[in-house]
Amino acid sequence: MCHVTIRQTGARRATVNSTARWPERLEHLAWLLRAEAVAVLVASADGATAVFSHRVDTADWGEILGTDVFNRAAAGAFATPVPAGRWGDASAFAAVAPVETWNEPAILCALRREMPFDPVDVASAVSAGHLVALMAHDGRALAESANRANALDERIAISGDFGAGLAAARDTSAALAGAAANVARRMGAGATSIMIIEGDELRLRAAVGLPPGVELGSAQRVGEGIAGWVAQTGEKIVLRGAVADARFQGNDPEAREAVVVPLRDGEDVLGVLNVKRPQHGETFSTREQLLDGIATDLGRSLRALRVIATLERERTHADAFAEVALAVARADAPGAARAAARLGHHAVALRDAAGAVIAVHADDAPCRDAAITASSRPEGGPVRVGFAKHGSRYDPAEAELAGRTADTLALLGRPDVRGQARSAPRVLAVEDHPVMRLGVRAMLEREGFAVVGLTATCGEAIGVLSDSAPDVVLLDLNLPDASGADAVTRMRAAAPGLPIVAFSVDRAPELVRAVLRAGASGFISKDTPPARVVAALHAALAGLVAVGGETTAPAGAFEPAASPEGGPEPSGAAPAPTGLNGSTHDALTPRELELLRYMAEGYTNKEIARAMVLAEDTVKKGVQMLIAKLGAADRTHAVVLALRNRLIE
User: Fold this and answer.
1) Which has more pLDDT, 15 or 228?
2) In this structure, what CATH number is given to the domain that contains residue 85?
3) Pick from 161, 442, 520, 584: CA 20 to 30 A from residue 12's CA?
4) Which CATH number fits the domain that encloses residue 625?
């Protein structure tokens, strides 16, 4: 086993670019030196070896120049004769000059026959050697630039894929899984894993090609194992061969080579990236610089993800805490427990000072039991709170937030809070559709009502009347056990004095007539804007009758109200109307009756003005006078009173 620790600084020295046009360059040098052949030679274990050559196919350079040629060249350029038979049959001459800045000891050798090289030729060979060194340096620089550009392109591609995956999945785990697969493909790795530091543990969050026994989510302590050591020290490690070190006992003895890199942002180590089992060759050595860059990008992305996750968690907590406070202000214990569960709990239980359970919200039975047990502890204020969750213990930050939540929930037991909350109108909502129930609750609570009951049937609603003590009922007319006016009749029989506002998708005039005749205090359509629903409930609480503007009823749709003596109101042109307060008003003029008829048909002031050939301001004042004469709360109420008293047909 051989393992080497490599810090993240430094780069491997590149070789000469083998694709450069060296044969053509050497041809030009041969012409300048008036040589028949030119070669660039490097020192190797076998002696002098030609790297590039011009017009030299095969040669024994040790025999041509001598085995000490590199030592002689190190002392300076020189010219030397070549005996016959060593380079061709005839004798020849050579000029040798050193080549600096090559990866290994190198020389430039020029050969020709018939005429020896003079000192001027040797000086030219020195210049040619410098030129070769410059060309080699430029070639290396170009090759390194190309490699860096390719590596940067790959880094950008991986980072872009990671960002695109995160945007598409909106989930860190899915994005990390995509990043692990991308890294494995581009690094040519048989296996890749990404582990994230969570507290004092290092947890596996994404992996490709790991052994069957390794599962996502598995954890090890920081400092233990290969990845734990890298997470603790912040240093990259390269492992080759079988891993026998006890600290680095791993699950993949056939990894061949593994490179484990810390994922860091500045000085902070956030996780570990591990690639192993190279698929192209036996090593990742030519790709380590790319891997370092990828690790840097992933580290920065993890930091950004943590910041975003923290902000989202704080926003969620702030919203949930506000909901808890609003529910407490309304003395809505079930709503407060439900809102508190959004603060990282799977169950919340509340008990009053006497120990009775007043509210429980739970996702599952085990957590429900645990929260109820936790709330039974004798210590605590006027309201005892129990929290529970599954999966892990509460960390210090979670425990601190739970403490603040419990302090807020404890206000449910204060008399001043209870007294203040009673001022909020208490609504019992009856709706059989689950999604509609959620929407109705959210709308009513947003508008300041206390939803003291939310049932799916008329029977359930009647059963909770005494315990919930509602001020008004919002009643769906299409329930499993009652429909239409029958639902109103049953509710009215159970609570004769309780205002009931009916709401339904059906706006047929005969349904509206039947519901109001059965004793409903109002009728609104389910497509009515929330503001009108709220207005109808407030009108019912004030003893008024409200019919939504979307509900149209033809003239004469309502039966006449009973007279104080029990008989029907006598018919006539325009008898004196009696308002809900029992006061008598002046008889209406024919012009006012015409105006009432237009109002009953749903005409706007502008449309009435056009029909009656009046100014719009005149119509507006006439409507106000009608409302005053009838003792109505608004124009809708005025129409209802007129229809009930048969002022219009």
Assistant:
1) 228
2) 3.30.450.40
3) 161
4) 1.10.10.10
